Amino acid sequence: MKRLIFLTCTLMILLAACGTKVEEERDPKESVKDENQKQVEEIVKEKEDEESIYFKELKLKSIDGQQVFLVDDLFELIDGTYQYDDLHRSVEMEIDNHIFKLVYDIAVVEHNGLYLPTNEISMVLEEEKLYLPVSFLDVALGLDVEVNERLVSFQWMEEALPVGSVREESLLDRTWTIDEMVDYLSFLQKPIEDAEVSTIPNHLPGAKRAYRNGYHEGIDWYGYATGKQISTDTPIYAMAEGVVVRADHDYEEYPSPLIRNKDLSLTAQLGETPEYIFDRLRGKQVWVQYEKGVMNRFAHLDAIPEDLKVGDKVTSETIIGYVGNSGTSGAVNQDGTQLHLHQDLLIYGELFWKPFSLDEVKEIIVRIFEE
Questions:
Q1: pLDDT tens across 102-116, in order?
Q2: Which helix (H) or strand (E) covers residue 153, if one does?
Q3: How many domains does the chain have?
Q4: pTM across the whole model
Q5: Are 148 and 234 part of one and the same domain?
Q6: DSSP string for 8-32
Q7: How many CA atoms lie within 13 A of 319 on its CB side?
Q8: At residue 34, does pLDDT exceed 70?
Q9: Same domain, 359 and 211
């Protein structure tokens, strides 16, 4: 009996020892398993944190059949600033060292002084609130977006935007000589074949425009001043290789002299011409973006070739429109007067003539268009 008890006790001790040994052998494996599980959980949590940081959502609203979002909402989600100018109805946004500019009722986006070949983006004003279409996110900012009826989502990284335009210094940040400007613009050909550029002071950039309380921003090509008979059949050429960034196929003329005069009365009250009114006074337009930041606004057109579209590549031999008087008093009075081409030349969003006197501007444009 004593022997049986002894054997039983011995067996229990051995089993306990074996159990302890097995437990000791399992502990490292269990520890590794627990550590792996912990790492997986941490990775999942980090991923969730990243998504909450980088994936943004904006509420959408439908205005005139277009899905738009509040600009205020956008800048609550991303780093950047914006300023809205109520006088000119224009907005300037700085996002990741990129500058974007828009003007009310103009479907053109200026990005770091270059004009984008798209007509999908136009700012919307409703009840004193500023909206932008979803296309601003994917076309202008180059973001991948997902849209449903109420939300647009996009990935936002605190790094450089996918869009590639380099921000250039302002035209006014450097000193220009006449020779430098002539050389810079010398690639441009005449917009009207066999015409001579006018040197009449009132046709030159910087001339006063009392009727709208402002200044003339470009070059006028009238028949009597250019040695070329001009009519609504006179073609206008693109002047150089470039890309069309605006083509007003859907332009609507002022419905009456009264409405146009109302805009002009407002300019008298303000003492300057708001940009959105200025644009309407330019009439039917085509804009072409060239190399080196040069952009050309062709204004007061009578017609635009039906097949000319935003995004089209053009050359000095491409007809972009025909001489007209749209936007002028001659158009709203329907008397056939004011027939001419007006063109504005800009360099990275700045009028080329701003660093110069009127006499210097005259010399520059004469030399640019010399045979």
A1: 999 999 999 999 999
A2: strand 151-155
A3: 2
A4: 0.84
A5: no
A6: HHHHHHHHHHHHHHHHHHHHHHHHH
A7: 14
A8: no
A9: yes
